[in-house]
Design a protein that fits this description.
The chain is of the alpha/beta class. The protein has 4 domains: about 140 residues, N-utilizing Substance Protein B Homolog, Chain A; about 40 residues; about 45 residues, no CATH class; about 200 residues, Rossmann fold (3-Layer(aba) Sandwich), CATH 3.40.50.150. Helices cover about 50% and strands about 15% of the residues. It has 20 helices and 14 strands. The strands form 3 sheets. Strands 7, 8, 9, 10, 11, 12, 13 and 14 form an 8-stranded mixed β-sheet that branches. Helix 1 packs antiparallel against helix 2, helix 3 crosses helix 5 and helix 6 runs antiparallel to helix 7. The termini are far apart.
Length: about 450
Amino acid sequence: MGGAFEPAGGHAELIPPRVAAFRILEDVEKGAYADRSAERRLASAKGADRALALELAYGCIRLRARLDTELARLAERPLRSLDRAVLLWLRLGLYQLRETRVPDHAAVHEAVQGLRRCGVARAAGFVNAVLRAAARLGPEERLALFPPLEADPVGHLTSWGSHPEWLVRRWLDRWPLETVARLVELDNTPPSVTLRTLGEEAARAAAEAREGVYGLAPVPGFPGSWELCRGDPSGPLGDLPAVVQDPAASAVVEYVGPAAGRPLVDLCAAPGGKAVALAAGEAAGPVVAADRSTVRIRKVAETGGALGADLLLLVADGRMPPLRSAGTILLDAPCLGTGVLRRRPDARWRVGPERLAAVVRLQRQLLDAAADLAEPGGTIVYATCTLEPEENEGQVTDFLSRHPDFSRGPAPGGWAFPEDLLGPEGELRVWPWQHSTDGSFAVRLRRSA
């Protein structure tokens, strides 16, 4: 029988993928990051078992509010009164009923069996009854459990759309309902894997092999970006100089510019995709990749080493970089990440308005440190993967008011990406609904000579 592997006491224990998914969900409920839990729980899992465990875990996290809205009606009791294991197995069972091709009887059976594996057999009858009731619901009956979009936008987007209310209200204050509904829909759609090839030779090799060997398809408008249409990325990554990188992140790399002044310092480099791509650019000289986490800088080293990237690695807090000066500083700042919620589904439940204020303070400190590091005539490229104005436009305006020796710089010459990504003041702005990518923002801040 196939199964996923989970380290236990230093040894690998064979467990079914649904149980592995349950363990990931359990970790996230306790405060763990989904990607780190998955990396640990599925350290030795491969192929279909790994894919199933990830789909179930990430799907349940992504659609948590949608699943819970339906379960609350079917269970006829407050979900908060349920044992944690019972609620998690209900979510796993309902997700399989609604979002996978698993037969109904198998989805119900596996949830009940999983519950028994976890030592909560007393609730097996309850879980069986709730999931069988869900299986009997027709599409119209199910939709009737949720508020209509037009009549109650907030109610619909927080329940069916499975987004926190504070974020939905914030977005509706800024954008039309149609735009917010599209953004929520994209966040709830699992992202495809996109590779960025490093150098023209790699791009030619990808183009030649895309039809047969790897199943790569070029991403329209984003030169060097390739969508993986089948299989996993290990094949092309093993044969081609490339990194896994969303087109929105690739746009930030292009925005820094191939002829960026050196030394080029990436102040918050981990996990390293941008630093490696910049090190493969046309300009001579290494890229200094800094991060305050030793574990995370090791990941940058692994990625860069495998590709022969010209990187100088530095464990350092970006607020106090032990460097004298730099011609270009990429500050890919920590942020709420509301532009990448499809890729980090647990982030939507982890962050709140109080977190926004703390992140804005940290970004301000990092920008001030970057200003001290920039040499005369040097450039800071401030970038985020958030959609929130306090972290983007507001942060830039505040920075320029504190640092009159800096001004906005134009976008780099030879821009080959879509023109609609560049704003009237030369800033980069990638909205997810524009090209079905992640979201990103960047601006060039030039110090007077």
